[in-house]
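Sanity check. The docking grid for AR6 depends on where the pocket ends up, so I'm generating a full predicted complex first rather than guessing from homology. Inputs follow.
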Amino acid sequence: MASLFSNRIQLVQGDITRQSVSAIVNAANSSLLGGGGVDGAIHRAGGPAILEECRAIRARQGGCKTGEAVITTGGRLPAAHVIHTVGPVWNGGRKGEPELLANCYRNSLRLAEERQLESVAFPGISTGIYGYPKPEAAAVAVHEVRQWLAVHDWPQRVVFVVFDEENRRLYEQELAG
Ligand code: AR6
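Predicted complex below; grid placement will be based on this.
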């Protein structure tokens, strides 16, 4: 069930690999070679074409730094593209984590803008294995997306996809505020 918070921001609880959007964002690691969590789910659902492009990007630029983003095909996913971004590992909050997480959202949105992608779906980057506290991460996510949409036409629509109840509640609060 999708909640509409503005005509350009939606909240959905579910599996990001099932979203019919122009691009889904992957919470990757700097190797770009896959992993657990949403990363594993995306590679499993999208098939080997995604990893193949990730390997080509690695060969070209040597992976992806924290806060940066790269784009590949979506393979067999409903989404045509996957934007892979590397969130910060939570380390107490004084190691630049908020700025690095904000960069993930901005750099992913910039790739979508460059390609004029209509819609982009984000998971809660860093809020699983990387241990970023969910309330703070939701605040960064909503703030950065709102700031971006206020001054950019592309992407036209952003979908926050939350997996768990806690994140759903937190995003609802942020989006209502
Ligand atoms: N759809 C939507 N959200 C999901 C899904 C899904 N299918 N699966 C998990 N989540 P995580 P991170 C949520 O751990 O913290 C990988 O090994 C999950 O509940 O996937 O950025 C990478 O390779 C959580 O809220 O990513 C890296 O090594 C959020 O997605 C590392 O994990 C992110 O959880 C990245 O850790």
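Relevant for the grid: The CA atoms of residues 8 and 157 lie 4 Å apart.
Also worth noting: The radius of gyration is 15 Å.
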